[in-house]
UniProtKB/TrEMBL annotation:
<dbReference type="InterPro" id="IPR043502">
    <property type="entry name" value="DNA/RNA_pol_sf"/>
</dbReference>
<feature type="domain" description="Reverse transcriptase Ty1/copia-type">
    <location>
        <begin position="26"/>
        <end position="134"/>
    </location>
</feature>
<dbReference type="Pfam" id="PF07727">
    <property type="entry name" value="RVT_2"/>
</dbReference>
<protein>
    <recommendedName>
        <fullName>Reverse transcriptase Ty1/copia-type domain-containing protein</fullName>
    </recommendedName>
</protein>
<dbReference type="InterPro" id="IPR013103">
    <property type="entry name" value="RVT_2"/>
</dbReference>
Length: 358
C-alpha cells in the first residue's frame, strides 16, 4: 500500500492541481507499460509472461497487488522516482476498511469506524437489536410530523452509508432512511437510531473473500417489492452479485417510475442486476479471465422469468420494452441463464432484512 503526499493549498488551487495530477499519473502509468481498465478507470494493469500486476488508486491512496514480485518492486521504484510517495507496507487498513488474512481468505470490516461512530453519537452503551430495521416498518412524510435536527440526521445517514462498503446487511435500511434527507421527522431519526443499535450488536461484522478455484463464475440474485413506498407507491429493487461464491457487490434502490404490475417491478430489478453482472464480466476479462460460463441470474418471480424467455406482448410488459428485449437478447446469446429458485432461497429478498440479520 502506498500513499501520495500533497502540499497544503487553497480549495481552488487544490481542485486544479488534483486534475493535473490525475492526468499526469495516468500518463506515467501508461509510459511504464500499464493499461487503464475500461471497466474501472482507477484500475491499471500489466500482464506479461502469464503474470499480472494491478494498481488501483483513490485520490492519493493506492494499492498494488500481483503475482510478479520483481515487477511489483520495479513499479514501486518507478513511482518513487516520479512522485512523492510513502510505502505503508502490507495492506492492513485502507480508507477506513480493515483488512485481515487467514488460511480461509481475506476479511474486510470497519470495526474501528463503527466503534468510533457509536462513541461520537453517545450510543456506545445502547441496548443492541438483532435487525437494522423494524419488521414491516413503512416510513413516510407525515403532514404533522414531529421535526428533528435536519443537519444531524444528514450527517448520521452519510456516516452510516460509508459502512455499506462492508455491510450488505445495512443496504436496505440505509436506502429507506436516505430518502428523507431533506425532510426528516422523529420517526425517521428513530429508524437511524435503530441502525446504530444494530451496529452495537456486532460492530466487527464484515465480508469474507474465501479461497475458491472457481473464481470465474458470476451469479446475481435480484428481487423487488411492489409499490412498497407509502409516499409515492414506487417499488424498491435489490441485488447481490457473487464471483466464485464470494459476495462482491450489492445494491438496494427505489425505482424511478411507478410500476403497474409485480412482473414489471421484477423485470426492472432483473435488468438492474444483469447490468451489474455484465460489468463484472468485463472486469474479469480485464484481469485476464475470459470465462465462457453463462451468468446465473436468480429471480423467484415466475411471471417475470416466463416473459424473459417469451416476448409475447401483453399489459404487464408494455411499459418495460427496453428491459424486456435487453434480457431476452442476453438469454439468446447464452450470456445469461435463469435457473429456478424458491422464494425462501432468494438472498436478495427485501423482507429478509427486517426479520433477521445476516
Amino acid at each position: 500500500m502506498m500513499h501520495g503526499v500533497r502540499k497544503a493549498m487553497s480549495e481552488g488551487v487544490q481542485i486544479e492541481e488534483v486534475i493535473i495530477s490525475v492526468g499526469r499519473f495516468t500518463k506515467s502509468m501508461r509510459a511504464f507499460g500499464y493499461c487503464q481498465s475500461n471497466s474501472d478507470h482507477t484500475l491499471f494493469l500489466k500482464k506479461q509472461h502469464g503474470k499480472i500486476i494491478a494498481l488501483i488508486v483513490y485520490v492519493d491512496d493506492m494499492v498494488v497487488i500481483g503475482n510478479d514480485p520483481e515487477e511489483r518492486k520495479a513499479l514501486q521504484n518507478y513511482l518513487f522516482r516520479e512522485f512523492e510517495m510513502k510505502d505503508l507496507g502490507h495492506l492492513k487498513y485502507f480508507l477506513g476498511i480493515e483488512v485481515s488474512r487467514s488460511s480461509e481468505g481475506i476479511f474486510l470490516s470497519q470495526r474501528k469506524y463503527v466503534l468510533d461512530l457509536l462513541q461520537e453519537t453517545g450510543m456506545s452503551g445502547c441496548q443492541p437489536v438483532n435487525t437494522p430495521i423494524e419488521e414491516g416498518l413503512k416510513l413516510c412524510v407525515e403532514p404533522n410530523q414531529v421535526s428533528t435536527d435536519k443537519g444531524r440526521y444528514q450527517r448520521l445517514v452519510g456516516r452510516l452509508m460509508y459502512l455499506a462498503h462492508t455491510r450488505p446487511d445495512l443496504t436496505y435500511a440505509l436506502s429507506v432512511v436516505s430518502q428523507y434527507m431533506h425532510n426528516p421527522g422523529e420517526q425517521h431519526m428513530n429508524a437511524v437510531m435503530r441502525i446504530l443499535r444494530y451496529l452495537k450488536n456486532a460492530p466487527g461484522k464484515g465480508i469474507l473473500f474465501a479461497k475458491n478455484v472457481n473464481h470465474q463464475s458470476i451469479e446475481v440474485y435480484t428481487d423487488a417489492d411492489w409499490a412498497g413506498a407509502v409516499d409515492d407507491r414506487r417499488s424498491t429493487s435489490g441485488y447481490f452479485t457473487f464471483v466464485g461464491g464470494n459476495l462482491v457487490t450489492w445494491k438496494s434502490k427505489k425505482q424511478n417510475v411507478v410500476a403497474r404490475s409485480s412482473a414489471e417491478v421484477e423485470f426492472r430489478g432483473m435488468a438492474l442486476g444483469l447490468c451489474e453482472a455484465l460489468w463484472l464480466k468485463l472486469l474479469l476479462q480485464d484481469l485476464g479471465y475470459l470465462s465462457r460460463q453463462p451468468i446465473r441470474l436468480f429471480c423467484d418471480n415466475k411471471a417475470a422469468c416466463d416473459i424473459a424467455h417469451n416476448l409475447v406482448q401483453h399489459d404487464r410488459t408494455k411499459h418495460v420494452e427496453v428491459d424486456k428485449f435487453f434480457i431476452k437478447e442476453k438469454l439468446d446469446d447464452k450470456i445469461v441463464e435463469l435457473p429456478k429458485i424458491q422464494s425462501e432461497d432468494q438472498l436478495a429478498d427485501i423482507d429478509y432484512y427486517s426479520k433477521s440479520a445476516i
